[in-house]
Amino acid sequence: MGQIVAFPIPPTPYPDLAADLDPAECVLLIAIRSWVECHRQDEDPIPRLCLGLESTGAPDAAFSVDGLMTVVARTVARQVEIHCPHCPQLSLDEKNLLLAASLAQAGNRHLAEKVLRTTLLSGQGADSAIGPLEDLGALFADAKLFLPRRRLPTTAPCGEREAWSPPRMLH
Q1: Which residues of 66-83 are buried (b: 16+ CB within 10 A; e: fewer)?
Q2: For residues 5-33, b (16+ Cβ closer than 10 Å) or e, as one string?
Q3: Dihedral, CA atoms, 99, 146, 71, 153, nearest 10 degrees?
Q4: d(CA 75, CA 122)
Q5: Are the beta carbons of 12 and 136 closer than 8 angstroms?
Q6: What counts of helices (H) and strands (E) characterise the chain?
Q7: Taking CA 121 as the corner, what is the angle to CA 115 and CA 125, rounded to the nearest 5 degrees?
Q8: Residue 100, class by beta-carbon neighbours within 10 Å (0-12 exposed, 13-18 middle, 19+ buried)?
Q9: What is the distance of C-alpha 60 from the center of its chain?
Q10: What confidence tens digit (pLDDT) does each residue in 70-122 have?
């Protein structure tokens, strides 16, 4: 008698267009981009985040997004590319934040921290970001917003972006 062996399906890569993201990923991406837009305008992001996340059933996730992005803004190791809320493109940095959130939601704290540490944040910053990421993952799960498992984004070839620059958010 034969044995059936199920081969695991490899995770899909992150798309280049925001429109091709899963609904939960779109919610998180819009929240991140909204936070950055508020930060640029020197506005409190919490009211906008609460309003936006209320329709998804996760209004309390606004505080986790704020905590995560505050850590990112304070501990970023280089200039970070976060697009405006209506931009159709997805940056590599946005993909890495989505990946870290997905890993944290799946309970893979170590890998989530490693993604942040090797792509965006200082070691201490990555460690500080894990708490808000885990809280965000739990609040999203409570709202039935499950972030899919995806492959690591490929890094940009050398020369396409500055390796070290002042920590600011850009479009």
Answers
A1: bbbbbbbbebbbbbbebb
A2: eeeeeeeeebeeebeebbebbbbbbbbbb
A3: 10
A4: 6
A5: no
A6: 6, 2
A7: 105
A8: buried
A9: 17
A10: 999 999 988 999 999 999 999 999 999 999 999 999 999 999 999 999 999 99
Residue 12 backbone phi and psi in degrees, to 5 = -80, 155
- Across the range 59-66, mean pLDDT stands at 97
CA 1 – CA 87 distance, rounded (Å): 55
Structure tokens at 141: 């799960």
Task: Classify residue 43 by burial, with Cβ atoms within 10 Å: 0-12, 13-18, 19+.
Answer: exposed
Residue 14 clears pLDDT 90, i.e. is over it: yes
